[in-house]
Amino acid sequence: MIFYILRYPFSLAHIGVTELRVYIMSAFDQEESGVMKIADLNQYSRQINLIVKVISKTDIRQVITRNDETKHNVCEALIADDTGAVYLTLWDDLVDQIQEDQIISITNAYMNTFKGSMRLNIGRYGSWEPLEEAPFDDVNLENNISAKQVQYDSQRGSGYSGNRSGYSGRGYSRGRRY
Q1: CA of 78: how far to CAs of 6, 40, 89, in Å?
Q2: 4: Cβ–Cβ under 8 A, 6 or more apart, which residues?
Q3: What are the φ and ψ backbone dihedral angles of 7, each rounded to 5 degrees?
Q4: Which class for 57: exposed (0-12), middle (13-18), buried (19 or more C-beta within 10 A)?
Q5: 83 CB-near residues (< 8 Å, 6+ apart)
Q6: pLDDT tens digits for range 26-67
Q7: Torsion-angle region of residue 175: left (phi > 0), alpha (psi -120 to 50) or beta?
Q8: What's the whole-model pTM score?
């Protein structure tokens, strides 16, 4: 939320001073503790630290990567805390390591979008560890943020023409120079 406020200061007219303080204080609270809540995540969230309970896992499927055509085992784990739930994508070793009904701490994860649905990923720079107990009593499965469809936002701007470089400037398409 602070990113939004700093990036678009002209839109503060509709936010009261009290609300602004609440947004800033909640951001500081998250930074101090380092632990976020699922309800606060969006499709652009990065460096996510969560404590969650693994509710269920889907069947394991094999996928082949486009880059090097290697086979990988993949499944989805529904994870939740007291504010919401989200699907966590598990790759290879994590498929067997993370189990249902386990309480885990996830560090440095990130969100991405797969088929219009938000997914949490641990990735190569993230980590996880099992915990003995959760800092919450019940989980909230009603607010499943993966069930909400999200729109893909073009990061390339309005000049995107479909080529991979993202540049469609005059004189550079199809090798012609004017």
Answers
A1: 33, 17, 9
A2: none
A3: -75, -35
A4: middle
A5: 37, 38, 39, 40, 140, 143
A6: 344 444 458 999 999 999 999 999 999 999 999 999 999 898
A7: left
A8: 0.67
CA distance readout (Å), 92 to 14, 62, 71:
47, 9, 9
Rounded Cα distance, 118 and 90, in Å: 14
b/e string for 119-144 if b means 16 or more Cβ within 10 A?
bbbbeeebebeeeeebebeebbeeeb
Instruction: Return the amino acid letter for 122.
Output: I
Residue 73 and residue 85: Cα distance in Å, rounded? 23
Q: d(Cα 91, Cα 124) in Å, to the nearest integer?
A: 10
Question: Hey, which residues does 50 pair with through a beta bridge?
Answer: 106
Residue 107, both tokens? 């560090």
Structure tokens at 164: 């991979």
Q: How many angstroms separate the Cα of 127 from the Cα of each of 6, 104, 107, 124?
A: 30, 10, 5, 8
Q: CA-CA distance, 80 to 62, in Å (whole number)?
A: 25
